[in-house]
Design goal:
alpha+beta; 2 helices; Trna Endonuclease, Chain: A, domain 1; 16% strand; three-stranded mixed β-sheet
Length: 100
């Protein structure tokens, strides 16, 4: 496994970069339609699941489920890639872990 100078391996650095892009896309959708924030419960974690990156989707699902198993409230949001902010296809589909 190749390592970057800062000690982060390339696979991790790639996932971080792709997640930053995913957050950016989701923030643009929120700016276009602030009602998207109503889908996110207060106090919980949000995990974005990209429609166009199966490897990142699997990694994010795994990380989110790890948090669920640790007892955290997690909301998973499905982010579609092609839709422009404000396009109805960009609306995030979500499911939330139940609170006990």
């Amino acid at each position: 496994m190749a390592t970057k100078l800062d000690g982060i391996d390339e696979a991790t650095a790639s996932r971080v970069t792709r997640n930053v892009d995913l957050v950016h896309r989701h923030l643009l959708a929120i700016i276009a339609d602030p009602s998207l924030l109503e889908r996110i419960p207060d106090g919980g974690a949000v995990v974005l699941i990209p429609d166009d990156d199966p490897e990142l989707a699997a990694a994010n699902l795994e990380g989110g489920m790890r948090r669920v198993r640790q007892g955290e409230d997690v909301t998973f949001l499905h982010v579609r890639p092609q839709a422009e902010p404000g396009d109805p296809d960009h609306q995030a589909a979500e499911f939330t872990t139940p609170t006990e």
